[in-house]
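The passage that follows is intended for readers who have already worked through the single-chain material. We present the inputs for a multi-component assembly, then the predicted structure in tokenized form, and finally a short commentary. You are encouraged to pause after the input and sketch how you expect the pieces to fit together before reading on.
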Amino acid sequence: MSDRPTGDIEALIALMARLPGLGPRSARRAVLHMLRKRTQVMEPLARSLAMVAERARECRNCGNIAEADLCAICANPERGNGEICVVEDIADLWAMERGCGFRGRYHVLGGTLSALDAMGPDELGIPALIERLQPEAVGEVILALNATVEGATTAHYIAEALAPHGVKVTTLAQGVPMGGELDYLDDGTISAALAARRKL
Amino acid sequence: MSDRPTGDIEALIALMARLPGLGPRSARRAVLHMLRKRTQVMEPLARSLAMVAERARECRNCGNIAEADLCAICANPERGNGEICVVEDIADLWAMERGCGFRGRYHVLGGTLSALDAMGPDELGIPALIERLQPEAVGEVILALNATVEGATTAHYIAEALAPHGVKVTTLAQGVPMGGELDYLDDGTISAALAARRKL
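Having made your guess, compare it with the prediction:
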């Protein structure tokens, strides 16, 4: 055993193999690739990882990843336009930022309401969301939760929690995705798209 | 742009995405996972990468990855049993070490003969292999090259280069892989297995 990929490299492979989307085999391939390209790949990656590991933290305001007390979005005054988009987690926030021209700020729940995982309103930072309404002069809260049962439940809960604060609560439209072929869409999506049909 | 995954994290994702088997999407997932598990995953990985990047080098003797002048295998006197197994690259060496009980040493070519990639005998360290025969009292050279055209060409070249040195040259047997179903095997393998059939 000690004769094959030497200790340190074994350890590195084991660590890489724990990343989502990588298994032992692909981890080995990745490590080999890095070993072949030490200066171009491995060293920059090591530096970058160390830097992020040291700097990255949670944005005090929205739960996004930040390198300071506030994330780049909360720190950007132009993004304080009175709109807050509520997302389940940071991957969704990144997806929103990639996709659309949303110019407001976010609130990252870090999950959905779930009795099993003991995720209650407090864990999801819903009180924190409510506290943001006043200071950030929020006029609209856009619920961009996943179109799952958990997402829908959470969305309804948040909508009710926000009701007393007289803020407009909206949610992403459901319908046929771009380039979607009806034939391949589930019935739920089709009926939702039909119910939400609009005049051309 | 500067509003989404902040600079450092963007850079980290871009670096991860360059690893084989990872794309932008899976790199994002991996980085998010690491950010969520900073102490358990990200920091150990950063340390491990830095350590390997600093220590790993090529074994002076066989071309394996080493943390010293000699790799663990060449440094291990018990492995100096007069057998050298020639492999195309380190991944193959690891595969041999995983799979079988080979107790000799290796010689890593780092590729196959190829006019296109300007890989000649010197690039493949074939002279170096010949120089190892005497000092390591090599009695047998086992060619464990991939069963590809390039592998076969290279194997023949090495066999001829070794002929004058009166060393036994063998190659891995070809045949039906363990658990292989004839129905799914290519004709080449079947006919090779038939030609090499042995008495039960």
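Commentary: DSSP finds eight helices and six strands in chain A. The mean pLDDT of chain A is 88. How closely did your sketch match?
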